[in-house]
């Protein structure tokens, strides 16, 4: 049987429909589900990515879903990256990715502790248990509060020894991140505004009363791969390996348990779910201003079909995406904010007068939405820096 071909136009149509950019969602969690999870390395990116996909976005509503209804949970998981994960998917993500990240993080922390002459695994476990007990006693706390309760959290390690970036931070942040990636504590509401990165911590049971149910790792990986294919497919095994952070062996083992169909992506072998090879109807024309590290921008490792030649202007040297302007499933420019918070953009290709007018409208809407808040991406890119100057 001939292998079906899925064109670039078809892939771009899928972005518009499935990533809720042409068909907005009613809630942040609905937007997150359409993407598996929202990228959250930059705290503000969760809000901006959700708002770009919501019918009636508002900071208060997104905060309510995050911190009151607790329908989204911030986790360190795929690629050792923070994501805001729909609560029902937390057990899958924990078993598929976070547990492996936890093991790697623990090994690194123990190495740093030993180099600093502080202690070994039993010492770290004692500090973790004391920290968890202090957090449960408080109910919720910032790192500084817990360091007052557990003095050993103030002990210092050396990072970047001998380099110009050498630093000697307290171990508190590594202990707290370690407990979080183990699924024992969770990031809560930040101090200050929605762009703040100083999070309050809470015991996991205050967010998920029964904790995180255990799922066999192999089963979890199968489910995560299936969800990625549903949201981002067609794609390649290399895309899956990159997005999940799994090994290629783990990806192939998971794919062997998912019903897929091989397709031709303009000469590159790709995969879709077995019941998902038929064309998707093209949506109405759409434009979007997406934040740095947006899930759609970072959804694949092979990006030429939607990025074109714009990578050097819109990505940093480590492959981190800056804020982007989209039109009908492709990146056509970038945007930034001036010191007063106003949104400015630059188109890198001709998209026609009607689409350009839609971009102007979207930029004005985003300026009004952010108000005086200025979001500075964690990873600055050439065009973003130029526009913000």
From TrEMBL:
<protein>
    <submittedName>
        <fullName>Winged helix DNA-binding domain-containing protein</fullName>
    </submittedName>
</protein>
<dbReference type="GO" id="GO:0003677">
    <property type="term" value="F:DNA binding"/>
</dbReference>
<dbReference type="Pfam" id="PF06224">
    <property type="entry name" value="AlkZ-like"/>
</dbReference>
<dbReference type="InterPro" id="IPR009351">
    <property type="entry name" value="AlkZ-like"/>
</dbReference>
<keyword id="KW-0238">DNA-binding</keyword>
